[in-house]
Design a protein that fits this description.
7 strands; five-stranded mixed beta sheet; 455 residues; 46% helix; 13 helices; extended; single chain
């Protein structure tokens, strides 16, 4: 082999090695960037895992940079404490002279203030003596009193009164305090000693007395023109349970069931529900024979997730614009002259966008989602009192989700029944601006008249 030929081979080999070295360097840089990105993601996930007290934390990438000024919008009516509707004590402090030098004071004028405070409270204890005897015709008989909670005596003869039970129900089932904290509050603020177990039993008796009122709430929901439903996981002595909520503007019913199927929805709404069922896209709602509407917030979320992969997709932008236009139209006056024409245009727009299959799999996934719900896509535009989203149900579910972080749910099926009844009635009273405390206090005595229910 000639020297020149050998030289040419060495030069070619050197060039090949240089090119390969350049490629390897580029690959090393790419892998280095990938490692940096993965390390950053691991750090973010590790930090997020330590934030168990902030389950609703918004990721940094989605945080609003230019925050609005806190507080109410400009022009909103101011808020202040209203003067009380009664006066229990009148105190007047005259100004006879200067409090510093004792000299005369001119231009004296009254400055009126109202101080609202909580009076010192101690338990009001009633020693109740009733009698038992034997009637020759009726057998064993006893005298009773409206304050009685039960006929137990002896070691079990000290009972909580109706107001104390009602206050505990308010704190636990409406405001979300744990039974142990309620016991601490009763002891420190009122000098009333009670155990969590005793409180639990008292609330269970109250729930038993109010079962008819709870069933009445479900009956009114069944007759409503629009019902909003949602569900989330629950715990009754173990996993595998589901908390359901069915709500209207004036009623809310919670159910805890070991089932996430359509039978729960069927049991609540019945077989002849004539209203509109608003829900997410869970398949359990599909078999129900009624008019339906699917939550727009879930549709928008699906489109947003797809736009992360296809940020420049005109098709996804058109879908979002169509849903937004429908919401704008729904917020307007349905009796206006152009409403019907705009409604028809929306139908045509939807038919055009969803009519043909998409070649892009990401776009097709979103399109197929809306095709499956095409029949329910604009239901809220055709019925009064129907919202475009399922936010009403999600808002009613949120307090239960917060309570679940503390207690996981219920320990027993008897406890879940108590929770269903009292939490449903507490939420309904709040919607109706009614007193849940009064409802419970009037229902728990031994011979109480059942609460008046609307049919």
């Amino acid at each position: 082999m000639s020297t020149k030929h050998r030289y040419d081979e060495v030069v070619a080999e050197n060039a090949r090695l240089r090119a390969e070295n350049t490629e390897l360097r580029a690959e090393v840089e790419r892998l280095g960037r990938m490692i940096d990105d993965l390390t950053k993601q691991v750090d973010e996930l590790r930090q997020a895992s330590f934030r168990q007290a902030a389950p609703f934390r918004v990721p940094e990438s989605k945080r609003v940079k230019d925050r609005k000024r806190p507080g109410r919008k400009p022009g909103h009516p101011g808020s202040h404490r209203r003067p009380p509707d009664h006066i229990d004590e009148h105190v007047e402090v005259p100004l006879a002279g200067c409090p510093h030098c004792g000299g005369a004071v001119a231009d004296v004028r009254a400055v009126t203030q109202y101080i609202e405070d909580l009076p010192p409270v101690r338990p009001h204890v009633t020693e109740l003596v009733t009698y038992r005897g034997t009637c020759p015709r009726c057998g064993s008989v006893a005298s009773t009193h409206p304050l009685q909670m039960s006929m137990a005596s002896g070691a079990a003869g000290t009972h909580l009164g109706p107001q104390a039970v009602a206050m505990a129900a308010e704190l636990h089932h409406r405001l979300g305090m744990t039974l142990r904290k309620i016991c601490d509050l009763f002891r420190s603020a009122f000098g009333l000693r009670v155990t969590p177990g005793g409180l639990s039993q008292a609330l269970a008796r109250a729930a038993g007395k109010l079962s008819a009122a709870y069933e009445s709430v479900k009956a009114r929901i069944r007759g409503s023109p629009a019902v909003y439903a949602d569900e989330t996981s629950w715990w009754v002595g173990g996993p595998g349970w589901w908390l359901w909520v069915f709500t209207t503007p004036t009623e809310t019913a919670y159910l805890v069931e070991a089932c996430r199927g359509h039978t729960v929805v069927q049991d609540v709404l019945g077989t002849r529900f004539g209203g509109v069922l608003v829900s997410d896209c869970l398949a359990s709602y599909d078999p129900i024979a009624c008019t339906k509407h699917k939550c727009y917030a879930h549709h928008h979320r699906a489109i947003a997730d797809a736009q992360v992969q296809r940020p420049d997709s005109p098709f996804l932008n058109h879908l979002r614009a169509m849903l937004t236009a429908a919401q704008v139209l729904g917020a307007g006056d349905r009796t206006s002259p152009g409403y019907a024409d705009l409604r028809r245009r929306l139908d045509g727009w939807a038919d055009t966008l969803l009519g043909e299959p998409r070649t892009d799999p990401v776009e097709e996934k979103v399109a197929n989602r809306l095709r499956k719900r095409r029949e329910h896509l604009f239901t809220f535009l055709d019925y009064d009192g129907v919202d475009a989203t399922n936010n009403r149900a999600e808002r009613q579910l949120r307090p239960a989700v917060i309570a679940r972080k503390v207690s996981c749910g219920n320990k027993t099926e008897a406890g879940k029944r108590t929770w269903e009844v009292l939490t449903s009635l507490a939420a309904t009273c709040q919607q109706r601006a009614a007193s849940f405390i009064q409802l419970v206090a009037e229902a728990v005595p031994l011979h109480a008249t059942p609460p008046i229910t609307e049919r």
